[in-house]
Design a protein that fits this description.
Blueprint: E1 7-12, H1 40-50, E2 55-60, H2 64-73, E3 79-84, H3 90-99, E4 109-113, E5 116-119, H4 122-131, E6 136-141, E7 149-152, E8 158-162, E9 171-178, H5 196-202, E10 206-210, E11 216-219, H6 223-238
Parallel strand pairs: 1-2, 1-4, 2-3, 6-10
Antiparallel strand pairs: 4-9, 5-11, 6-9, 7-8
Protein name: Nucleotidyltransferase family protein
Domain Nucleotidyl transferase: 8-234
Pfam family, one: NTP_transferase
Length: 239
Amino acid sequence: MTQHPTQAVILAGGQGSRLRPYTDDRPKPMVEIPGTGVPIIGHQLAWLADEGVTDVVVSSGHLAEVLEEWLGKAELPCRVTTVTEPEPLGRGGGLKFAARSLPRPDEPWYATNGDIWTRFSLREMAAFHAERDATATLALARPRIPWGAVETDQFGHVLDFIEAPPSPYLINAGVYVFARRFAGLLPERGDHERTTFPRLARERALAGYPLPQRSYWRAIDTAKDLTEAAKELAGEHGG
């Protein structure tokens, strides 16, 4: 039986400028999902703990003291360590910096961006990662296009209108499983998605795990995303 990771990194240092005014006085992961009374990071920690994670390293930056104050007062479902980058290191550098504080450097680990609100089986994703002997595995989502689509035939006749169809493309869902060796391949500063990931893809050492159908996934990037998340939550609890 595959041993799933029990440690994770949450990247929580972003400015969240597109979520203003919510992020004027708090970092993005501290924005509350309307109707829950819990910030995004609270949902993430509960999910990680449910999936068997015992230790989380939170990499903070923008308004780090607000995040640290909440973590200090909240009842947390796992052990949480916060690290603050001495200067902006980029996502790849931030991951490498945070990974140095993982309690078990010789074991695999999960990572997630601090603005992702999702629920799916991380254990199944870890098994997928192990089966492929991948160095890194990223979760893949198929988001809905925010506009209505128009379907036409070859002669230019409109056949149908489709409201918010699923994208034909899979996107990086911002949740990862990393092998022990991955941290050593990260840049000291800069973006791993432009350096480390393309290199691993060329070596066929990067795997993509499509989120199971009907899995809940949303990146909380704008005020509209918060509104949509609240609607979806109300629909789930109401129906």
